[in-house]
Amino acid sequence: MIQNEELHDEIGDNHISSSAKNPMREDAFAISDDEKINKIKKDVENILQTLGMDLTDDSLKGTPNRVAKMFVKEIFGGLNPNKKPKASTFDNNYKYGEMLVEKNIIVYSTCEHHLLPIIGRAHVAYISNGRVIGLSKMNRIVEYYAKRPQVQERLTMQIVQELQKALGTEDVACVIDAKHLCVNSRGISDIESSTVTSEFGGKFKEAQCKREFLDYIKLETRF
């Protein structure tokens, strides 16, 4: 048992993912959001009480409920498939055939190993194969997959896969540059480091296309 705990700690401390998909139980949505909030509220109360906090203080009275609502409705809202944005696409009537890049999309996610924030920017691009997607939908897809306990590599892949599915083309790319507070504020406590991940599909695997994309977002060619 100790060996398993040590292995799990090592995986978490080194930010290693065990699954290409977010690990979810089959009964993940067997209870309502309100029921989840009530259950989480009690758990947060227990954590704070165990830490020795006085929950009768006016500043702390509402904390368990606030945290529970935040988990279910906000920072982990992307776990609920009912909240998945509709990726409406349209005919490329103006025949634009070059690369389209949406850069500096803000990423707010949560590390699944320590439940601490991941904060950064995503840069997403595609080349139309006859269909185009609204710019805001690209932001919403990033937001949807970010709002769950995550690993940055998985998040990068999920964004690309969702856009490939919506647009009917493999020619999609994503680069994410983000700070992990589990690295910046605990453990090694390196406040300067950030993590860069990338996923290139179709034409973006070709050196010239990849270089053009990276030039647009001003990152060195190091992938």
Automatic annotation (TrEMBL):
Pathway: Cofactor biosynthesis; 7,8-dihydroneopterin triphosphate biosynthesis; 7,8-dihydroneopterin triphosphate from GTP: step 1/1
Region described as Disordered: spans on this chain: 1-25
EC number, as in UniProt: 3.5.4.16
UniProt enzyme class: hydrolase
Domain annotation GTP cyclohydrolase I: ranges: 40-217
Residues annotated for Zn(2+) binding in this entry: 111, 114, 182
PROSITE patterns in the cross-refs: GTP_CYCLOHYDROL_1_1, GTP_CYCLOHYDROL_1_2
Family per similarity comment: Belongs to the GTP cyclohydrolase I family.
NCBIfam families membership: folE (TIGR00063), PRK09347.1-1 (NF006824), PRK09347.1-2 (NF006825), PRK09347.1-3 (NF006826)
Subunit structure: Homopolymer.
Protein name: GTP cyclohydrolase 1
Source organism (scientific name): Flavobacterium palustre
Gene: folE2
